[in-house]
Model the fold of this input.
Amino acid sequence: MPFEDILYEKQDGIATITINRPKVLNAFRAETVEEMLTAMRDAEADPAIGVVVLAGAGNRAFCAGGDNSARASGAEEAGGYGGRGLVGLPIEELHNAIRDSRKPVIAKVQGYAIGGGNVLATVCDLTIASDKAVFGQVGPRVGSVDPGWGTAYLSRLVGEKRAREIWFLCRRYTAAEAYGMGLVNKVVPADELDAEVEAWCQEILALSPTAIAIAKRSFNADSENIRGIGALGFEALALYYDTEEAKEGTTAFLEKRRPDFRAKRAK
Done:
């Protein structure tokens, strides 16, 4: 399958989807998400695949979230957000594809997992991080938010107080801090990350795929109500993105200045 924004490899029961935009810290645009969805669906349909790994190209970032340049352009031919999905790109569908896959999905985080990248790591079944990884949110700084899995489900992983701290303060956390709050399963030295992820994949592949699928469905059932919350939230987010307040976040980011959200907020 010809891809422009991702690398997709299947080998020995493992499907690896790598965001291949290292020049922008693997930030995703509409085309990136579409390609990731295609790869996820292919991996799900392939009976030879037992586990999926999500990764980012290079050694600086797993994913820095949505590409604000693409968001500002809005041009579909440039991979912008205009006219794509509820809020311009099908990120909600990608989150659901990760959840709905009968196969465990592992986030391999070697660097920054910020904004939408942090949400991707949250939604994955397991997260293994390099000791150089950095986690955190940036949405409210750029006029954005994740109203579904990235908030409500995050609170199940790290607790209400921590989840609110992550979103309300937009701080950055080391891999060790992320492990301590339950956002990460294991932290290893950077040069051992590939081997550690491979080892976890092999352990999963040695187990009953049907039992694993049932276990995943059972885990998901307990938090499935968040899907409805997210669908409602993304409808509201689509309206928010059209406001001057939200646009101020993108404009300020591109102009490298501090945004003045309150001046743009609707009276």
In short: The radius of gyration is 18 Å. Residues 75-86 have pLDDT under 50 and may be disordered.
